Amino acid sequence: MSARQDILGRVRAALSDVPASEPATWSEDEDNDGAAAYARRGEVKGAALTALFAERCGEYQARVTRVAAAGVRAAIEAACARHNAASLAIPVGLPEDWRPETVEIHVDRPLLSHRQLERAGGALTGCALAIAETGTIVLDAGEAQGRRALTLLPDLHICVIRAAQIVASVPEAIALLAGDARTVARPLTFISGPSATSDIELKRVEGVHGPRRLEVLIAA
Amino acid sequence: MSRNEFADAARPALEDSQLRANLREATHTIRDKRARVTGELADWEELREAGRRIKERAMRHLDVHLEQLERTVTKAGGRVHWARDGAEANRLIGDLIAATGADEVVKVKSMVTDEIALNSALAERGITAVETDLAELIIQLSHDSSSHILVPAIHRNRGEIREIFRRELAGTEALSDDPAQLAEAARAHLRRKFLSARVAISGANFAVAETGAVCVVESEGNGRMCTTLPRSLITVMGIEKLLPRFADLGVMLQLLPRSSTAERMNPYTSLWTGVTRGDGPQEFHLVLLDAGRTATLRDEVGREALNCIRCSACLNVCPVYERTGGHAYESTYPGPIGAILTPQLSEFRKGASLPWASSLCGACYDVCPVKIDIPTVLVHLRGRVNREVEGYGGGGEGAAMGLLARVFQRRGSYERAQRLARALSRPIVRDGWITRRLPGPIAGWQSVRELPAPASETFREWWRSRPPEDKR
Q1: How many structural domains compose chain A?
Q2: Exposed site from B28, B39, B64, B377, fewest CB < 10 Å?
């Protein structure tokens, strides 16, 4: 017997007490018991949403700047200057009006090598959405984001978020991502601040393997 | 084997005052942070209940979900393998690595590969597995073993870590004991490994049957490195890690980070589905491991242990863990959850004494993000161990309890027993307590407890002696 048949057989034998009529999944939509009625939507809305995201994301030692839509390029240039970044790696499809004019630009097409990415002064991307309650940015390799290595190897990540992309809570973000998850199945990366470790005496150290510096620009 | 196995293993830790200070500091720090960050969510209790229902239902229909996971992962370009036990998984993984020609692989921190001792199995085949989580690296370089699910090197302080790095890593002679500098040294050492590795091995925090997405939750970025840069990725997961629906992540990704690192969200969470062209590994293998999960599933009470999402909140609040540390459990899974997982996963070949490594205070149940009733399972397992494991349940305890049960069932015999105990104990009572050591098995019980004397008058006797007008 194959390991597969063997394991599935053992699972079925172990579950002989489970009635065949029981649904295989639990769903919050079908359960009317208030005991499990967690918040599917956050209560924060509108301008407060942007403020909450900025506050929570900032608490992770990310630098958060709010800019007018027309001021994105200047803000990116200022971020590059702050970190002495002389070049940026960018994905295909990044909005033209975000491209800084003060630094060298490397477009990830043809694909940049891992070495080239590592030597870039930073990476500049957009995002799929952002979560206010947890201060999280979500990348799904979609528009203006590129592949995963692009935002991983450079030591600086500059991420532009449009205010309209901010949702209140984790369940809202998951609900928005679910459609694509079932069809195109893009890789997802949830980013909450720069990489960190607390492995030594639980002292938080910002910056281990991922980008050690995270600049977040919220465009109105 | 005996119930004293855990107590004996705990003795060295209890005598090490530095270790106890490290542990106390660490567990209290995380526990306080966790309380703050869970208190911030108005729906925390509802989230816990939803988490419990999601996992419970998933386990009760595990066969259906496993077959679906196999379909969705395969459809997305991944390959699914099944392993009945650790040896089979290790062989399979070794073969997959050998096929790529690699003799070094990078690894994301993973409990399950520790459980099946993958690293040493690979070493026997000439394959070096490089741990990339900072704490796991410290453990690996010092040939030590993990003592905490989340912070494996919780028992080491910064001075000890500096010494380990100086001894094992090139170019670290001038290293200070500043945590930032220590992390920097690990970054430089591992960066070379990430860029040259052809194969990575990871565990999984979750795998979604509905879509085939596999999820790794981490902080340092080593998980992203391993699941992004190498050409091949091999993920090993216990079959209980499965979630039925993508929507379940909306609950779990709130419960796990807040319970685990006590953050609103951990720095990085990666989800990937099979293979994506031009992005990340172009070869993906998912190894579904049984290794005692189906045996655990058979026990209708004990199966709850499989709902665990490995957050480690129960370790940090446990009065026993706080004093003994993780090594005393002699298991990959320490603490309260380890005390119910280890004996069950090993079918009582390991950790049979662990169900007694608890005061049954219930703090673990209160913090568990998926509401595993650990105290109930502990008591249930004590019974099973007594009945099923040689060396336990003897010593006349079972017979004595049976006799007491018969005596206590009838009022007449119960009251006669009380009078008899009072008469027999009278010569050895001092100030209301029996302080003299009694003979036989009671001496052991007495060695850590004080035995009150039987009351000179029971409530029933007092009640009967009242005049009738007082009894209204």
Answers
A1: 1
A2: B39
Q: Are A163 and A129 in contact (CB under 8 A)?
A: no
Are B235 and B326 contained in the same domain? no
Nearest to B290 among A10, A195, A211 (CB): A10
Question: What whole-number distance in Å separates Cα of residue B145 and Cα of residue B141?
Answer: 10
Give the Cα separation of A217 and A212 in Å (integer).
17
pLDDT greater than 60 at residue A170: yes
CA–CA distance, B405 with B31 (Å, rounded to integer): 41
Sign of CA dihedral A88, A94, A97, A98: negative
**Contact check, Cβ <8 Å, A152/B83:** no
Smallest Cα distance from B148 to chain A, Å: 11
Is some CB atom of chain B closer than 8 A to the CB atom of A184? Answer: no
Contact status of A147 with chain B (Cβ, < 8 Å): yes
Residue B389 sits in the same domain as residue B425: no
In this structure, the answer to whether residues B163 and B235 fall within a common structural domain is yes
Looking at the 3D structure of chain B, how many domains does it have? 3
Bridge partners, B235 (sequence order): B202, B286
Give the minimum alpha-carbon distance from B72 to chain A in angstroms, rounded to a whole number. Answer: 9
Range of the domain at B340: 1-40+305-393
Å between B344 CA and nearest CA of chain A: 14
Interface list for B 82-141 with A (CB within 8 A): 82-84, 88, 132-135, 138
In a domain, B400, yes or no: no
**Which residues in chain A are closer than 8 Å to B57, comparing Cβ atoms?**
22-26
Q: Are A210 and B268 an interchain contact pair (Cβ–Cβ within 8 Å)? A: yes
Query: Between these two residues, B289 and B471, which has the higher pLDDT value?
Result: B289
Average pLDDT on B74-85 reads: 98
**Which range has the worst mean pLDDT, A99-113, B155-169, B189-203, B212-226?**
B155-169
Q: Is residue A12 part of a domain?
A: no
ipTM of the complex: 0.97
Same domain, B216 and B309: no
Kindly state the tokens that stand for B179: 């945590």
Comparing B70 with A208, the larger pLDDT belongs to B70
- Chain A partners within 8 Å of B65 (Cβ): 24
| Domain-located, residue A31 | no
Q: Is the pLDDT of residue B125 over 70?
A: yes
Same structural domain, B451 and B373: no
Mean pLDDT over the full length of chain B: 93
- Residue in chain A closest to B302 (alpha carbons) equals A14
* B36 and B54 fall within a common domain: no
3-state secondary structure string across B61-120: CHHHHHHHHHHHHHHCCCEEEEECCHHHHHHHHHHHHHHHCCCEEEECCCHHHHHCCHHH
pTM of the model: 0.93
Chain A residues with CB inside 8 Å of B280's CB? Answer: 147-149, 187
Q: Looking at the domain assignment, is residue B373 inside a domain?
A: yes
